[in-house]
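Supplementary Note 3. Input sequence used for the single-chain structure prediction.
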Amino acid sequence: MSESQPWPRIAVVGAGAVGGYFGGLLARAGAPVTMIGRPAFVDAVKKNGLFLDTLQFQEKVRVEASPEISAVRDAELVLFCVKTTDNATTARAIAPWLSKGALVLSMQNGVDNVEQIRAAAKIDALPSVVYVAASVPQPGRVKHVARGDLVVGPKNEKTECIAALFTRGNVACRISDNIEGELWTKLVWNCALNAVSALGHAKYGQIAGSPDAWKVVETAVYEVLAVAKAGRIHPPGLEDPQAALAGALKIATQMAEALSSTAQDRNRGKRTEMDSLNGYVSRRGAELGVPTPVNHALYALVKLAEGRS
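The predicted structure, written as discrete structure tokens, is reproduced below.
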């Protein structure tokens, strides 16, 4: 996509930390972006704009905002950023409003969102792997603390268009022909760190600095890799378990000041995505005959904590 080409119309469904950050960057670069979110978010953005507090800049960005799902109408690209627990409901809600030929990009944790979206509403969404540490400290404000890059795939006309679009918006976006493996790479990191952060009320850097916590991370990582191997999934660069553990340490160090999205959900009393993370690994392991006691324990404990909220 050249700088002279007109931007496509973009809608962000689920304008939280991820949607707010990436949608905000695209709007800052000049794209017409409509963010669909909760009334408090919409009111704040309409009144004051979207404030991006990033590592590189602090700036107020003007974007359109609406609480109505029908605002996806006329969008050529839809960034699907809702929690995985809302996949089916949201897919069915946007389906009647989608323009013919609109691209829907899943920007979520987990490895089976595209399948869930298709099953719920016959929408052929595209997968992506999102690496960003961001939060929403108050409505209309996004706080970015680390990374901010994407992986899409496999390589085709649609993914090339999406990668060019994000690149134009100053977002690093790589195309991979092993997107399933890339999704599992992110799943490894999520299963290693998210639940531990939530249960321990700990930032990633604290987890990396605790030998006892790191033993839990280590075992969780090994279990996810065993399930991937049994399922004939090949997360790139993680064939060696020690390399995978080194990768988890790198992530925890890069995002030392970040709380996991699971911890943020728990702090707000919201449902977590555990069913799509450690819970998914536990279920898939059972199907494949691979024991996953640590992943199952992390899943069960977070779900117990949710029940007390």
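The longest helix spans residues 179-200. Residues 10-177 form a domain with the Rossmann fold fold (CATH 3.40.50.720).
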